[in-house]
Automatic annotation (TrEMBL):
Residues 3-119 form the Gfo/Idh/MocA-like oxidoreductase N-terminal domain. Residues 128-245 form the GFO/IDH/MocA-like oxidoreductase domain. GO terms for molecular function: nucleotide binding. It comes from the Bacteria. InterPro entries: Gfo/Idh/MocA-like_OxRdtase_N, Gfo/Idh/MocA_oxidoreduct, GFO_IDH_MocA-like_dom, NAD(P)-bd_dom_sf. This is Oxidoreductase domain-containing protein.
Amino acid sequence: MPIKLGIIGYGGMGMWHHKNAPKVKCVDVVAAYDIDAYQVDVAKKAGLRGYDNLDEFLKDEEVNTVLIATPNDVHKDLAVASANAGKNVIVEKPVAMSMKEIDEIIEAAEKNNVVFTVHQNRRWDKDFNKVKKAVELGMIGDVYTIESRVHGAGGLIYGWRNKKECGGGMLLDWGVHLIDQILYMIPNKVVRVYAELFSVLNKDVDDYFKLLMKFDNGLSAQIEVGTFCLKPLPRWFVGGDKGTLVVDDFEGHGEIVKLNKLADKFDAEIVETTAGPTRTFAPRPEEVKDHFELPDVDTEWIEFYANVRDTIEGKAELIVKPDEVKRVYSIIEAAFKSSETGKAVEL
Ligand code: NAD
């Protein structure tokens, strides 16, 4: 059965889906609903049936799947209404504003026997897939630390993203992607979460945060998102007992560094730093290190729509599963709690 998509919220991301979803065979966008009359007009000019009324939109019989790309605080009501109208439901990230809201969406989807998934598109990012493959292949041995970091320089956050009541702030906006990536890569249980949220330039929402996740195998993962970092650090730093991996950017440029056989012959000497000596931090000479390219990956985010289509047809399992979405949200809730209390949250 071809997907006939109706988009709710024909703004930046709604238009992006309109442009990209039809690149997949048997996926068409046919309609859009928006509360803003201007955006409805834009949708009509782009060739869609445009609606300014939700009930009318949900009565559109050609639409079998609804994609919700509105501000975050209205995702839940729109998702439940769409499921109750018998439509399959794709929700933009972050799926909702609380675990309770996610449960309501899942319940409505199950009751109406429709597919429900979330657009966690950064599972298909090149940088992430290189790290995932290298970790899974054991290219740097047993991994003890992962740092996933996005440093932007813009500073100010605009529109509804700058309003707490709309689900603004960076933990919900980018944290949800970066947590999802880590949990998709590391199947172990998270036992502890510690987070600190800051409002550096934007007073109502978090525009910088640090989050630590401790896994039951001892691995520690740190996520850091900052909107005002004028000297950005690399996108990924991963430490293993056989080497170090660094990815610089979203394109996945970076390398793996390991010791070679000459390392056995290297005896660290005490070096003098400005105010004292150290042997532990004496630099290793270049000749004892080997540099390796990161693994090749073949990743196409457009697979997301194909997977939804195939799941609706009963030919595939969802890649972004509701219980994974809940797992990510349990970390977000713990991070908010940790930041409020100043204490780590045991899970
Ligand atoms: P936007 O402000 O550009 O567009 C939102 C649209 O929703 C606007 O046209 C607005 O009029 C409409 N709208 C608001 N309330 C509505 C309602 N109750 N019913 C119907 N329409 C309504 O926002 P955006 O940047 O497109 O973000 C939309 C969603 O997409 C958010 O959840 C955001 O987190 C997500 N997003 C995801 C990615 C990604 O990479 N997955 C990237 C950007 C945004």
